Automatic annotation (TrEMBL), chains A, B, C, D:
Keywords: Hydrolase, NAD, One-carbon metabolism. Its cofactor is NAD(+). Substrate binds at residues 96, 170, 195, 225, 229. This is Adenosylhomocysteinase. GO terms for biological process: one-carbon metabolic process; S-adenosylmethionine cycle. One of its GO terms (cellular component) is cytosol. It comes from Chelydra serpentina.
Length: 470, 470, 470, 470
């Protein structure tokens, strides 16, 4: 889920995933680092909040498995051969029911795993407990301190008698730590798989600087991720995020969406479908022309700011909604951000003495002007769908499956296939990821006849897209 | 909000409105009836949970006012003349931020009000406190006992030196109580305004039996209510209810909706728009033909039950989803009810020893078959949108405005205009209700020219619809 | 097809149905009245353009039959009993492939038929020939004179040794003729079935005046017709009418639709779906509020007239688009009428010396202002879908089936069931009409269980709707 | 308009564009080559059907100009500098109102043009006459023989005292002729602009073989063309093509669309929006997964072939619909092709003795099985929208503007910028093309602030997309 990672990396102090926010309260005040815990098999090779929550976490994992049947099917198909036999994977990702399904899939395929969290707030403690109970060496809890964060990563990497040969990272912190503290580990590492925008950016910089010493897979830019995450995920979550926070009625609402990329397209499709009247702002003429053809008015923000009921940013840019815009909004206007930068809405400009902030619900602030006008600001301008709604497990499954395949590919690649560079997954593997998700919809692929394959100049089993397709 | 009322009347023991369910927990264990409370002006003419919550309740009322501008505008237009001056209204409705806006509008128009709750669970305690603080004689709290319930109603009706001349009822319990205990009160009553299906049904029965001794207005069947509540309200809330409970992804889901009346049409429109594949079951060939023309397959439930991901009932019928259907559903199938009967899904049939119930979240049960198959049952088969999502304030505003106008009409009607019978609001008033809601959308009505009005045989100010229009 | 009839009645001199307009040119100049023609069985009991075209007409009828399976199925179900045995029906309708299927169904059910055209331009000559060849006494051709028109009607009614006992009329001209010339015929007539708005209006006037001497069925206002014709028929034909005349691209077009009744709703749904940005004008607050909830801006025509690309009237009113509006439209603006009055657009105001008219295609005029601005006027302001597109046969099938059932009902009704008044078809028959059309969609109705029927207080076989439902 | 060109190149003997097909009949039988014609200025430097039709053609050009305001605006912006001054362009394209607007734009920018038709049937004679009257050396008429075709091309290239320095080609025939007959001409040629799939393919082959001796611009693969042509053009034309040929009702129709690329996506969006139930077949798992998420069932053709009402191919593949499929279709099933190959439907397999073909309308054949079953085949399996509907002028404008800009770029490029290779237009020019089309929608682009541009690492004036974007 592309734009998440970046934000999580940025605001480690702030993000609270909704599911966790539901408030399974901190049982006690003792730091997990100081607790002695043992799972039912007698192992203490983990550090989680409370191993006793394992059963509850197991149920959450089982629920997630139902929407991640691609991974389950991968377990089945690859079980005999154990394509990750011998793999020692050190991982650093969010620790949620969904990533637990990934981790347990890697184990089922033969890997040994040690895992930490890429975000100090995003760990589902029950899930971490369930993983620990199942024998995974997991070091993570919700509400880690900065020091805890690096301690957990260190515990994963630095273990006597065990040396990682694969890295699965989300945000680049683990990779960074190994570079800094244990550069020798890279001698055994066959490859890095990285999911986030930030992490991938760091890898390209390393590569440019000639410092990347192992092959790396850029999962973030894989076709399946790009084509599905932004468009469909935002189409699913924009309505949900708005309803949960404001109970707003969509019918007849005047909305302006800033940016008509994939994220904007997803938001606009959902809002229009539910009866909102949507305007678009764009800087790019090609996206603007698409917006026109799709039946949206393309305007400058100033032209409509006085009359709209909802403002949504989807640009990746900064200061798209300025204090001047906020000053001109009408009473009760809702403002939120679906893009990937925390600065799309200039929230800082609202922290001035003449404005009063009133927290009316979790993630919902009324900012009140001296004349009584209220602007409804969601999630303090951070990502709405990450903060206030959930992401469909099925979409996360696409990314998780891609990560698993990337690990298998790098781990099993013949010497020399991959150099010390950043790679995209081969198109054929993208297509394999997609095909693993079709049974969820009971979708039946058609197969080319020999004659047709010849006519099209394609292999019957794909890849069907050119390599430059994205 | 049509189908709510009936259900609330039916399952007084069960319904929990979401907003309240958020769990502002019971502060103490003393019954409000035993507390001595005084508002800031020294009055004790009320009985609520905790008068100190008034400020918080006031804010909720103010938020609601923003989406109920029709009532606010009614206050302004009718303020000079005070059309309810002298009216003494005894009311029994849900006590929420939205009904508070109605009650305070009635007061602003000149009425004196005494109020109780029509449901033992639906009272927002803070709102009741705010009403009490503002001087309304309100007797209601969340979690009343059956005895409390009737005590509160009695306190409204039975007061020395004050006798009601109007009744506003939702469900018919207040009306019933007056009939039973204080029949003499009807000598002064100018009329009853009733909102719910159940209450209206009771009134028609009284009328048939020749026992209705005052005029009554049936608000439930007013055009504005019928044309807006079911269709739009369900279109707004079906996605919300499903997401909040299950986080289900809509894209590509196979859904079957039982019933293609207004409720079904609203659900189907929203689900199709978000990428679900929707099938319909219908008993009525006219609705079935509409479903066909709208692009849905019309099937028998048995034909699709094995393959669907979600089952939604919208029929008003009973046992639409039977144990046999439930037995044949696939693993993880979600089952919920948007109709108005608690018995659309035969939930009782699931309470058998061989099935295990597991409560996984609030309002979400997994019913587990011996072979491990889980069916996800929402709100135990009660109304999904009432139980698990919110209803747009704007839609409630339409009904509330109609109630206010019905009270004004009955209170001011010249002797003899209304007999001892049940009436629908005159079409022109329906149109007035609608017109009061247009400014929210910045909608501009066109006015007929004299020439056009003559051509059409209509008055320039309406009514525009024939009386039989609904 | 409701609004057709009225228009056809009004502009007998003008309407040209598209199919005919394709221009199968007039073979010769001899009036059919002066020709001697015999069909292959030796009969001369008809008067058509050219009996030799029968084969081509038969094929058109066969094509129509494929979308009128309800009538075919009615033939089959009722064949044994011949419910129209003994019926002598005199009819006056459009004579097209679709009405031919109706006429031949009536014959198959036992009736004898004599038929004339209700419009001097709408007859498909080939179809008339096919009917004549099949033995129907048909008197009609395309391009009749006024005198021909009444001559044909007279030939149907006035025949030695044959006296009609049923009337099927569309527009009321046949009924009028019988009233005027052969009032005694009514002694044998068991009933009149009338389809058009105009004809029904005349019948109600007769009834009011106490001059209606037989029962009459108002087919125009039957539920199936009202619920399907306007909404779905316009949804199907608005895009078609615009494309065939102007090849306009819909994506991103600014459109204003005047009137948001069923016709307007159908047009707006289709245009929005194809990417147009649609504004609405309305006089009725209830329809205006629906437009808002459906995501359309409600404006006054003046507010948007300068910027829109397309103006569509759907009001039933007159002078909705005035010369003043036309003066303010931008260059290339397209103007057309989907309502039922020819006067919705004030076309007369455009016939002034300073404006130049240029016919650019069939049914398309450019009206050119002195400054060179062109307004694109379609069908000279007459009904677009009647003039420039086709009406789906399936929709016509619904009306035709209703006509057939109305004839059967009136013909077989026991003495006294129907008085000398205008009736609507019983709800149950409406539902039967609908059910006959479901197999086309392979739609499967659900049947109530005994228990459910009892719970709902309904008969298992319907009717399911209350009588006031429309 | 991408897939057109290929087909036109393939079936020079067959294609008839609808507009022309309207049948402005061949005035006489004398070949234009043998006529002596002079325009009103006395020039005979052209060869067209009938110079007297110029006025009518001029009107068609003027109508087209209204939807091609990007070219008109290009004329205005570039008029002072005349960026094509000195350019001598030899062109070979369809000769229609739309290409006429392009040709006259090139002239207005300073170029001299000589023009022939790339297809023997697609020339609009009136338009050719109007061009000739305006002084363009045009050699083209509708219904050329193969010999005429090459004669016309030759007349353009081979003229004493005039030598082309630019080529604009559509299909590669002109380029091929110059290579074959006048290779020396390439010494003066600064570049080739090619629009069609076929032509571009030939250029890449030349380039591979080292035989391309001048720079060439591949307009076919420009972003604006790819992103707009297929998706939007097919969304606009699928309904139109089906209605004009069959008058089919869309509501409730069961449709299968083979292929969910851009063409399929456009078709499906329109059909679903109008109430059809759409199934998809796909060979590519990524497109299949998109179809699922968009709410379509993904099936094998065999699974649904017996029940569907309409089959549409959009694959680019061959024999997608086989005789076996055709044998299993139900009566009245409509079959048509929106892809780019004539062989998607195996029409050849239908030309067997046991099947009867019946031409029921222009472009519509009934193929009749021995048991009476009819399959409705449109355009004999050729491209439906090219054969039976029109293409929006606005979409053609995008391509035409790109062609004009490509010519300007190549003609003015400094020595050495372009080698003897095939190029795509720089991204910035794509964006310029898009921006020229925004005023048609009254769309207002937002401009980046300096600060934002810096933050994003972009130039304020674009390009905004990475080069690999397509």
């Amino acid at each position: 889920y592309g734009h998440c990672s970046l934000v999580l990396a940025h605001d480690r102090q702030e993000v609270k995933l909704t599911r966790n926010a539901a408030g399974r309260s901190s049982d006690d005040e003792v730091s997990p680092r100081e607790k002695q815990q043992t799972n039912s098999k007698g192992s203490s090779n983990f550090c989680v909040k409370n191993i006793k929550q394992a059963e509850f976490g197991r149920r959450e994992i089982e629920i997630a498995e139902q929407d991640m049947s691609a991974l389950i099917s991968l377990r089945k198909r690859a079980q005999g051969e154990k394509p990750l036999a011998g793999a020692k994977i050190v991982g650093c990702t969010h620790i949620t029911a969904q990533t637990a399904v990934l981790i347990e899939t890697l184990c089922a395929l033969g890997a040994q795993c040690r895992w930490s969290a890429c975000n100090i707030y995003s760990t589902q403690n029950e899930v971490a407990a369930a993983l620990a109970e199942a024998g995974v060496a997991v070091f993570a809890w919700k509400g880690e301190s900065e020091d805890d964060f690096w301690w957990c990563i260190d515990r994963c990497v630095n273990m006597d008698g065990w040396q990682a040969n694969m890295i699965l990272d989300d945000g680049g912190d683990l990779t960074h730590w190994v570079y800094k503290k244990y550069p020798n580990v890279f001698k055994k590492i066959r490859g890095i798989v990285e999911e986030s925008v930030t992490g991938v950016h760091r890898l390209y910089q390393l590569s440019k600087a000639g410092k990347l010493c192992v092959p790396a897979m850029n999962v973030n830019d894989s076709v399946t991720k790009q084509k599905f995450d932004n468009l469909y995920c935002c189409r699913e979550s924009i309505l949900d995020g708005l309803k949960r926070t404001t109970d707003v009625m969509f019918g007849g609402k005047q909305v302006v969406v800033c940016g008509y990329g994939e994220v904007g397209k997803g938001c606009c499709a959902a809002l229009k479908a539910l009866g909102a009247i949507v305007n678009i702002t764009e800087i790019d003429p090609i996206c603007a022309l698409q917006a026109c053809m799709d039946g949206f008015r393309v305007v400058k923000l100033n032209e409509v700011i006085r009359q709209v009921d909802v403002v949504i940013t989807c640009t990746g840019n900064k200061n798209v909604v300025t204090r001047e815009h906020l000053d001109r909004m009408k009473n009760s206007c809702i403002v939120c951000n679906m893009g990937h930068s925390n600065t799309e809405i200039d929230v800082t400009s609202l922290r001035t003495p003449e404005l009063t902030w009133e927290r009316v619900r979790s993630q919902v602030d009324h900012v009140i002007w001296p004349d009584g006008k209220r602007v409804v600001l969601l999630a303090e301008g951070r990502l709405l769908n990450l903060s206030c709604s959930t992401v469909p497990t099925f979409v996360l499954s696409i990314t998780a499956t891609t990560q698993a395949l990337a690990l298998i590919e790098l781990y099993n690649a013949p010497e020399g296939r991959y150099k010390q560079d950043v790679y995209l997954l081969p198109k054929k593997m993208d297509e394999y990821v997609a095909s693993l998700h079709l049974p969820s919809f009971d979708a039946h692929l058609t197969e080319l006849t020999d004659d047709q394959a010849k006519y099209l100049g394609l292999n019957k089993n794909g890849p069907f897209k050119p390599n430059y397709y994205r």
